[in-house]
Amino acid sequence: MRKENRNSEHYFVERPKSKLKLGIIHTYLRGKSFKFLTASGVFSKKRLDLGTRVLIESMILPEEGFVLDIGCGYGAVGIAAATFNPKLHVIMVDVNERAVWLAKQNLELNNVTNAEVRKGYLYKPVENKLFNCILSNPPVSAGMPTVKAIIAEAPKHMTAKATFQMVVRSKIWGKRLRTIFEENFGKR
């Protein structure tokens, strides 16, 4: 029988209960240097996780318009998108108040002025907004209903030629998510 770590805490919560322990990540993405303030109670606090790195390195950004980073954590994806294309306005959303605070700090730390951070659950902070691109490294440990909602609600928030780009571990979620994508975006 596996013992649960009593100090572990799920990061997809509004108010993390863990004691605040700050850290800093220095990394290069698409040949540019970034610095991210991180903390306990958020996803991947010690290093940029592989999924986030893959999404950033492969994301296709529109020439201009609005981009949504849903479930932004400390802001790596949204900050990278805003940095790579200054003509974009990036909105980053997370339910976790500590993640929102960190993302705001990281905007300043990386001198990003064409992005903002909003606190709230999934699409609620951007209810009446349309985006040219939606990006997500979803909180898979929050469960399938949360990930499914990110996919299912996306079309209501997308312009006609928008893209939805998500990264997930295919061995765990691939087949199940393919069906959800096809139900909401059609077969291609």
What does it look like?
The chain is an alpha/beta fold and 188 residues long. The protein has a single domain, classed as Vaccinia Virus protein VP39 (Rossmann fold, 3-Layer(aba) Sandwich). 30% of the residues lie in helices and 26% in strands. It is built from five helices and seven strands, in the order ββαβαβαββαβα. It has helices at 50-58, 76-84, 97-109, 144-153, 170-185, and strands at 22-29, 32-39, 65-70, 88-94, 115-119, 131-136, 158-166. The strands form two sheets. The chain has a five-stranded parallel β-sheet with strand order 5-4-3-6-7, with helices on one face. A two-stranded antiparallel sheet has the order 1-2. A hairpin with a 2-residue loop joins β1 and β2. The longest helix is centred in the last third of the chain and has 16 residues, at 170-185. It is globular and about 40 Å long. The relative contact order is 0.15.
User: Can you tell me the CATH topology?
Assistant: Rossmann fold
Q: Compute the gyration radius: what is it?
A: 16 Å
Terminal CA distance reads 44 Å
Strand elements, count: 7
Q: What characteristics describe this protein?
A:
five-stranded parallel β-sheet; 5 helices; 188 residues; globular; disordered N terminus; Rossmann fold; two-stranded antiparallel ribbon; alpha/beta
Outline:
30% of the residues lie in helices and 26% in strands. With 188 residues, the chain is α/β, with parallel strands linked by helices. Helix 3 (97-109) links the parallel strand 4 and strand 5 (115-119).
